[in-house]
Amino acid sequence: MDQADQRAEQDAAAATGAGAGESMQGSQMGTDSSAMDQGAADVTDLQTVFYFDFDRAVVKSEAFEALTAHAQYLLDNPSAKAVLEGHADERGTREYNMALGERRAKAVSRYLTVQGVPGQQIETVSYGEERPAVVGHSEAAWSENRRVELKYESR
Questions:
Q1: What residues pair up with 50 in beta bridges, in sequence order?
Q2: Residues whose CB falls within 8 Å of the CB of residue 30, separated by 6 or more in sequence, listed in order
Q3: Which of 3, 28, 51 is nearest to 149 (CA)?
Q4: Residue 153 β-bridge partners
Q5: Side-chain-side CA neighbours of residue 111 (13 Å)
Q6: Model confidence over 46-86: pLDDT tens digits?
Q7: pTM of the model as a whole
Q8: Where are the domains of the chain?
Q9: Residue 120 DSSP code
Q10: In the 3-class helix/strand/coil scheme, how is 27-84 assigned residue by residue?
Q11: How far is 11 from 37, CA to CA, in rounded Å?
């Protein structure tokens, strides 16, 4: 496991309060039955952009319900593939922001795999600061750029 994978796993554990060595089961990841009852519901109605705090790659608890529904959709549709695009704001070096975007995408990927989604249905990519959602040099702009976008592609 490389350093980025270890960091993504640590971030996923931190997001749920799981300590080192603890197993992250669905109940620990914030799975709730209403999201599971959605089954293969129309994913076009689900949140697809997940935001992060400054310099962090921890999935926020408010993302758990939507991510759990995405996981269920992927489980119900084995030919579907999720592409997780990690982004960062403009602060920091280009190299650092590429790595941060990767850690963010891997944290979301880890959440989905803990929910049972096979790794071959998930692809991660980092754009760092290169594709801002909002152009600007303020906290409002930066907070919109610290994100992972989940997109589907069919095989």
A1: 148
A2: 16, 61, 64, 65, 68
A3: 51
A4: 81
A5: 33
A6: 999 999 999 999 999 999 999 999 999 999 999 999 999 99
A7: 0.74
A8: 48-155
A9: G
A10: CCCCCCHHHHHCCCCCHHHCCCEEECCCCCCCCCHHHHHHHHHHHHHHHHCCCEEEEE
A11: 27
Q: Are 46 and 69 in contact (CB under 8 A)?
A: yes
Contact indicator for 58, 7 with CB cutoff of 8 Å: no
How many of the other CB atoms lie within 10 Å of CB of 71?
25
Give the CA radius of gyration of the chain: 15
Does the domain at 48-155 match CATH 3.20.20.240? Answer given as no
Cα 8 vs. chain centroid, distance in angstroms?
Answer: 10
> What is the enclosing helix (H) or strand (E) of 7?
helix 3-16
Residues 89-100 have pLDDT tens digits of 999 999 999 999
Please count the other Cβ atoms lying within 10 Å of the Cβ belonging to residue 2.
7
Q: How many helices (H) and strands (E) does the chain have?
A: 5, 4
Interatomic CA distance for residues 24 and 15, integer angstroms = 11
Give residue 75's pLDDT.
Answer: 97
Q: Which residues of 77-88 are buried (b: 16+ CB within 10 A; e: fewer)?
A: eeebbbebbbbb
